[in-house]
Amino acid sequence: MFTCVFLYQVGSVDPARDFRTLIRQKSLPFGEVCQQLTGRIEQLLGNKNMNYYIKCIPCIQTFREQSVQVGNADHYNSYIQSLKTSIPVRGLQEFWDMLVQDALTLINKDEVDGSRFSSHDAKQFLTAEEKKEEVVAAVVDDTGDVDDLLDMM
């Protein structure tokens, strides 16, 4: 006998699979399912452990893929921007590096018509932090003028 299992929430065992199932079932609004997934991601990230980071990557990949498929970039883009701004405060740079490595960036206009980001914006989103760090490093390394001024005194 075949039993149909109806899912009502994104669980912790396989959140990415649960998210896909809920989207496919269409039993809940897309935004509500996205909110459940991001809540689960936040819970996992709160553990600050590489095993949980590894579990979050497929969640974010699936979130992005399903958002593109459904044609709604807003929830994903808002979440990924919010996540990026919280990385330094929360000490999640290691996790962010994994997202950058997997190129999990903003959904752009070429992927979803309603997106407000160009493909250039999406590419820039992941590289912006690296460039800022390089500029800061260059400024910090250039102490020659200060040393020269002090020598003149």
From TrEMBL:
Gene3D superfamilies: Ku, C-terminal domain
InterPro entries reported in the protein's UniProt record: Ku_C_sf, Ku_PK_bind
Domain Ku C-terminal, first and last residues per copy: 14-126
Top-level division of the source organism's lineage: Eukaryota
Pfam family for this entry, one: Ku_PK_bind
SUPFAM superfamilies given in the database record: C-terminal domain of Ku80 (SSF101420)
Record protein name field: X-ray repair cross-complementing protein 5
Species per Swiss-Prot/TrEMBL record: Salmo salar
Gene encoding the protein: LOC106592031
